[in-house]
Amino acid sequence: MPTPLFAYRKYWAECFGPAPELPMSRAEMDALGWDSCDIILVTGDAYVDHPSFGMAVVGRVLEAQGFRVGIIAQPDWTSAEPFTVLGKPNLFFGVAAGNMDSMINRYTADRKRRNDDAYTPDNVGGKRPDRAVIVYSQRVREAYKDVPLIIGSIEASLRRIAHYDYWSDKVRRSILVDSRADLLLYGNAERAIVDVAHRLAAGEPIGQIRDLRGTAFVCKKLPADYRVIDSTHLDVVGPVEPLLSPYVDTSGPSCAEGGPEAAATGECGVEVMDPAGTGAPNTATAVAAVEAEPVTLLDRPREAGPSVIRIPAYEQVRDDPPLYAHASRILHKETNPHNARPLVQAHGDREVWLNPPPIPLSTEELDWVFEQPYTRLPHTSYGEAGIPAYEMIRHSVNIMRGCFGGCTFCSITEHEGRIIQNRSEDSIIREVERIRDTSKAFTGVISDLGGPTANMWRLACKSEEIEAKCRKLSCVFPGICKNLNTDQTPLVHLYRRARAVPGVKKVLIASGLRYDLAVETPEYVEELVRHHVGGYLKIAPEHTEDGPLSKMMKPGIGTYDRFEAMFNKFSQAAGKKQFLIPYFIAAHPGTSDQDMMNLALWLKRHKLRADQVQTFYPSPMATATAMYYSETNPLQKVRREGEKVSAVRGLSQRRLHKAFLRYHDPDNWPLLRTALKKMGRADLIGNGKVHLVPPRQPAKRHARVPADARPFATQHNGLPRNPARRRR
Fold it and tell me: What is the pLDDT of residue 640?
């Protein structure tokens, strides 16, 4: 087991004690009595000393280890001089783009430049460069060539191997190669950053730090003692099963109940490979994998020694889209920290080596991370300037990390992992009390108790042994795994305790709710609806049609109907008029014009109007992005003659899909009328209730909105619903 974060011997600079806020200037360093910084962190966000902001977490965690940490936030990148403001660090520079990928932060799904930035004082746009990690790294190298350079943040995480880049419409090299960094840390990297800092402080050269989980680096050749496995020889779990009705009983034999037969068919996600390496399932070995030691079948080498999986080289995935989809599939299969092996990908004559993911933090460690002495305020140098991302989450409490949903368009799993990391109830309540006691702006309302998902706190596999072997991409698709504990009564107890804190008037739940899990515990839904909804509750069915839903790995719309019925029932019982705000995605891979038309008809039947529309955004490394680029389905074993996935690429078709979501907007009616005629659905043009659009444009620019139509807002063109939650 790894060393707990709080068990390291502290660095000598501990004697200076914690800083009121991490310094951003020489004057602040002088006031603290520092002659130098041990570590300097460069970030594309404004510095907000709040645990929802990555640089604050990393900075405070390193400070708790005894290191002196300085922050350079949103520096002018046109020269190296702003990167020298704090002097030369004794140990290393840490470079991050911020809480979002800099390209997603700067551009819409239509590749239009934004004029704002929620992570910048006064919401000013343009305060960070495109591809910020690369640009900042170049300036750091210009300023101090000999200082170790470590990159991290979600931008580095999602670009750690060769990846499709939507904005340049090509496959780019690993960000490690382009940034010339010594080390890349991916995911929530507290374990790795703490270990690296102590090893560098002990005099170990950064070029020798090659064994840390959650890291990647460039090397000239592979270690001689590693057995290299060609990824194209690996067999994986078979095709995703057809989407099931949510009303059908999916309680077939689980891994634990089905025994050897279940394992042999891949029910628990154990990969099967024949001894000859041809890819044919080997039942006997699969049985042994379940009944014997907790290793995967592919880890049973014919020769002794550690193994590394070689995925296709950058040049191959750049020129061969199916190979790109294959590499994406292998990477996602190797994300369980309990069975993942290292990956290697050639870039010319160099090798990009990815170590397995980090071991998740224990509850005690996560409590320790969140209970550092954060001021929960922006740096005082910003004065009265408002920072929208901070204002949104200033009175929220993050209760967990990770997501086992596996939605293909989302990057949470790639960054935070599939295993839920939980804070303790006591720690969460202490943070609520801290907000009450220290925030001058607190009015008694906690804006959110959540995280990447509102209701996955304390949910996990019922068997640690099965969890250690599993390679499934989702615990809830195509149905909820029978090995998953779905009891949300502990969350009910947490909600009750939080709202009972003296001085707390209301506790809202603003994080995205996983409704297919919520319906498993009706008591949770009732508690949520009665006490924690502020009139509207966000929920994300994403689509109504099986085709796109199967490519998203989302449940069928029937599950949404079940939750809606519960929501309305409990709202009525509580005497409250409350509404669901459903979110939908246009132009997702695997979505046809017919699918979008059917979704529009569903919206009209339910008297819903979308004020804003979320168009699919191919973020780096997401499974849906691999579908978009390759037009191949990496949810199945990739074959050139395998299933093809339609990609909505052209601007005209993307506009049409958006128009279907905003069927009520008169500006979209001409486009929709033309499309419906081409689709042979002119019967949907008319003035009746069964029609989608009227035959003629209104005399005035905007038609009158029907009195019974309920508005709702979807995520706006790539901006996160909650910037600090980073769901994409």
Answer: 82
Q: Which residues of the chain have pLDDT under 70?
A: 234-304, 700-728
92 vs 37: CA distance, rounded Å: 9
Among candidates 413, 417, 434, which has minimal Cα distance to 367?
434
* Interval 450-496: pLDDT, tens: 999 999 999 999 999 999 999 999 999 999 999 999 999 999 999 99
Count Cα neighbours of 314 within 13 Å in the Cβ-side half-sphere: 22
So what's the pLDDT on residue 725?
A: 42
In sequence order, what are the residues at sequence separation of 6 or more whose Cβ sits closer than 8 angstroms to the Cβ of residue 160?
174, 175, 176, 184, 186, 216, 352, 354, 621
Q: How many Å apart are CA 155 and CA 152, to the nearest integer?
A: 7
Torsion of Cα atoms, 452 then 458 then 463 then 465, to 10°? 60
Please report the pLDDT score of residue 723 as a whole number.
40
Strands 92-96 and 39-43: parallel
Which tokens is 232 given?
């194209």
pLDDT at residue 276, as a whole number = 32
Per-residue pLDDT reduced to its tens digit, 367-401: 999 999 999 999 999 999 999 999 999 999 999 99
Strand runs (DSSP E) across 578-701, as ranges?
579-586, 608-610, 614-615
Query: CB-side exposure of 551: number of CA atoms within 13 Å?
Result: 28
Give which of 99, 73, 22 is closest to 415, Cα–Cα: 99
Q: What pLDDT is stored for residue 304 in this prediction?
A: 59
10 Å Cβ neighbour count for 254?
Answer: 18
Q: How far apart are CA 565 and CA 568, in angstroms?
A: 5
- The segment(s) of the chain belonging to CATH 3.40.50.2300 are 5-220+349-354
Helices and strands (DSSP H and E) totals, the chain:
25, 25
Dmax of the chain from CA atoms? Answer: 79
Nearest to 3 by CA among 192, 206, 257: 192
| CATH number belonging to the domain at 5-220+349-354, selected among 3.40.50.2300, 3.40.50.720, 3.40.50.300, 3.40.50.10490 | 3.40.50.2300
